[in-house]
Structures are given as structure tokens and as C-alpha cells.
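Issue 218. Parser rejects a valid record. Input:
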Amino acid sequence: MTTVLTYGTFDLFHIGHLNLINRLRDMGDRLIIAVSTDEFNAGKGKTSVVSYEDRASIINSIKGVDLVIPETSWEQKATDIKEHDVDVFAIGEDWTGKFDALKELCEVVYLPRTDGISSTEIKQMLRVLDPQHITEMQDALAVMSRLLEHYRDLT
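Output the parser choked on:
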């Protein structure tokens, strides 16, 4: 039996996450996913839109995921590999080389990401919806409405 382990935040779940999980599932017989806790993310300067509890529940409900555990520190990876008898540690290619030390414990694989999608990009797109930007958009629309009314009056 081959056990595969990965780590991630999995915020704003999207097709890239699903593609990764499907690839991971195809790499072995048992899939363990460690989901970053809100506290761990805060320590990295990251915030999630979706709470840890909900992200873990989403991941746990996906077919082929056998176990979801919390990621609470960088150092836990070696312990998790030993504790869960992991054969393959796999993570996105943006981490290439960063976890090579784990090769002493198991196979380490860096997987390509899905082009054109990431939680970070989605969050950047949603930032335009903050209250200040909404007010600015409303003001701009009001100006455009007045211009269109003026143009209509001229014709």
C-alpha cells in the first residue's frame, strides 16, 4: 500500500485544487491531506477567506481523500511522514527544492499547478470589492449616468 501526503491551505476551493487532489490520489492507495490552520497561516502572514474548519470539511468530503489532518507548523512534516508511514510527499512545483530534506524519509514529488487559477489570484480579483472600491465604482457610475443623460438630451 502506497501512502501519499500533501499540505496546503485550500482556500477558495477551485479546479486547481481538485486537479491536484486527483493527481495525488492516482499516485497511491491512501491519501492524507494536511490543511493549514488559520493560526499557522497567520504566522506566515496569510489570511484565509474560508475558516480552517470549513476548508478541512470540504477536503474531507472529496472522494479519494482518506484522512485530513491540521497543519500547525513547518516542522511537523517529518513527524507526519513517520507517524502515518508515508511513501510519497507531494506538493506544488512552486515549492521545488524546499522540501528535499524529506527525501531521507520518503519520495518527494513536486507537481505542476493548473494554469490560470490560484486562490491568490482570486483574492486579488475580489479585493476590488472592498468598501472603498465599491464607493469609487458607484461614484464613477453616477458620473457616467449624468454624461449619458446629458448626451441623450443633446440628441
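Fixed in the parser; the record now loads. The helical segments are 15-26, 38-43, 52-60, 76-83, 119-126, 131-154.
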